[in-house]
Each structure stands twice: as C-alpha cells, then as structure tokens.
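Every protein is a chain of amino acids, and every chain bends into a shape of its own. The protein below has been through that process, and both of its lines are reproduced in full.
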Amino acid sequence: MSAVNSDVRRYVIIGNGFAGTTAAEQLRKHDPSCEIALFGDEPYTLYNRISLPPMLRKQIPEAKVMIRNEAWHAEHRIDLHLRTRVDRVIPQERAIEAEGKHFRYDALLIATGGRPNPTGKPGSEDAQNLFPFQYLDDTRAISEQIDRSRAAVAIGGSFIAYELAEAFSSRGVETHWLVRGPRALHRVIDEVAGELLHEAAAADGVHMHYGQEVDAFVRSNGVVEKVRTTGGLEIEAQCYAYGFGLAMNTELCDGSGINVSKNGILCDDRLETNIQGIFAAGDVADFYDPILEMRYRMGTWNNAGAHGKVAAINMIGGSERYHDVPEYSSLLFKGQTITQFGLGPELRPDLEMVRKVDREKKWYRALFFWEDRLVGGLMLGKGNRAGKRKYVEAIKSKQRFPKPEWNAMLEWTA
C-alpha cells in the first residue's frame, strides 16, 4: 500500500467474509479517499455462506452463491489479496505481516472467523470421503461424493450437521444422523422442541441415532467404509460429513498483546480490542453486547454484516455501539422451520423461560427472561413467526415485564 500522502488513512482488513467485505464497502462509502487492503486466505471473493446448504441440496447453482467479484473490488478501489494468509499483527509498528511483507495501517479489522474442529477419531485423518462443511470447496467435494453414494452419515448435534442430514435426504440417499446427546440442537432446544425436530427428520426419512458418539472410522485404502459408534452401532455408507463447531482463527494475534479468549478476540461494544485502532468483527469477535449486557460470540450471517458496519464507522473515528439483536431462521427439513432471536440458554443457563406448544400445528414458542427483561426467543413451526418484530423491539427497549405477564406475551402477534 502506498504511503505517499500522509493525510490519506490506511485501513487493513483481515478476512474477506461478510463482516470484512461489508466493512471495506462501508469504509469506501464514508472515507472516499482512503486506502483499503483486504486479505483472504481462500481463492474466492465474498460468497454467501448461508447459500451453501441450498447449493448442496442442488436447489441453487454455484453462480448464485457468489456475491462479489474481483471487478467489484477494483471499482471500489479495494486492494484485494486472495490466497494470502496473514501471519501476525505488529501493533507497535501499526502493521501486519503477510508472506514476508509488512502492510501498515491507521486502523485494523480482524474478521478471520473460524475453522472446523476435526473429529479427532481414529480413521478420520485424510479420509477421502469424510468432510467438514464450512467452505465453498467443502460444498463442492461433498456434493460430488453424494453423487457417488447410496448412503450418507451426518455426524454431530449442530446446525451444520442438520444441514448435512437435510442435504443428504433431499438428494435421495439413505441418510443417518449421529447425535452424541439426547436430541439434535440440544444446546438450543429443549426436549419438547426436540420431539418436533425428530418428527420432521423422520418424515424426511432420516434415521436418527441419539446417544451415539463416533468410536472409529473403519477404512480401506484411505476410504471410510463404515463408522462404528461407542454404542455399538456400525453404519456402512459412502459419504460422511460432520459439524463439531469451530476453532477461532486467533493465532495471528499471538505475541501481539491483543486479548483473546477461548471464544475469540475480546472486544468492547464498539468492537474495539484492548489495543486502540484494532477491531474485531464476525464469528471471531467475542464482543460485549450493550443491549443484552453480556459478552458472547455470535456466528450468524446477519450478525457478521451488522458487525462490519459498526466496525467501519469506528475505524474512521466514530463511536458507534453494537445495536442489533442477533437473529437466525432456517427450514428444518421439509416440515418445520426454526427462528431464534436474542439470547438462549446455550449462552445463559440462568435464564427463565415460558413456552407454548401446539402439537396439532407442530408449533412451539419459548421466551427467555433475565431479571424480568425479555432477552430472547425460539419459534418452531411454519407460520409461527408472528410477533417476532415486537419481541425484538421489546428486547432492545430493556423493558421489564412482571412475571404474571410472561405467558400472555406468548400470544403476541403484532
């Protein structure tokens, strides 16, 4: 990056996902004369990660997954570095190091996200037909393997594992879903909601296996032929994929003085780290939410975009606080939907809850409270999203609701 004009601010962004690319776009909008360098270690410009599951189901073509191209970056005068891994941050020099070169900055954004945790099980290393599901290349590889398969196994209790099971089922292969816990998505949903999810999976022909942890992958010539579980099951298949959560990409902060936690890079409600001028956004940000009044990490697409906007304003010298309520919604197989907003028990086990269940409609609604404030909710069921906007506004308002009113709030529809 040039340093000819000292009045021109230089911004460096590490990570060209939704958070990083959004921040770059906002920086160009608010500071037309600035210099922006954007680094990504994949060979691709920004693509839509929430479109990977429908791509895997062959509901949309790969072209629909791509959001930005190199011409867009050139048009916005963003110096794009693909296939480039940033090795370290050097705050005392206000620089980063990548491939032996130093790139100086006036403000830095780290939006490096995370990488899939490995299975850690015997037989998994370098297996040709065992895949994580995080990147575009993963999606391509899994899709090609499905075409060669009669049966497939999704492993894990996470949303990633659900998306795999759904894709396998929709592609017409015999589908097994191995879940270590008593139900899928057990960190998010209770046993009642878990029953509705089980019914949706079973209706799509998915074979559910609860309380089953992988013991080993049995291979021949580098190919997994069957998976053996701790419960004694043996399942033969040609395609295996898993979702065991993410390990945050924080290694570039080693030795920099930037504070990190087991969840990511620590930052405040402005997304600034403990070192002035260095910010974090997206999956890797362990940030303080001034609405929910706690620190957490949120790995949703919408949250990444919101982070990118807030970080950009603060990188140019503003003072914008995070002001969104995180939301997530998805189909659950053909027969169910799920909508989440705010906090849930996976982030705060001390939350109080009220819930409402309509078995006939297959509807479920739960609201979560902390110190008499509504802080989150969960909805299952097609057509069961009414009232969501009102709930989100109530969360933002920090209004307190007496406990006798909580059940009536389950009926909100406006």
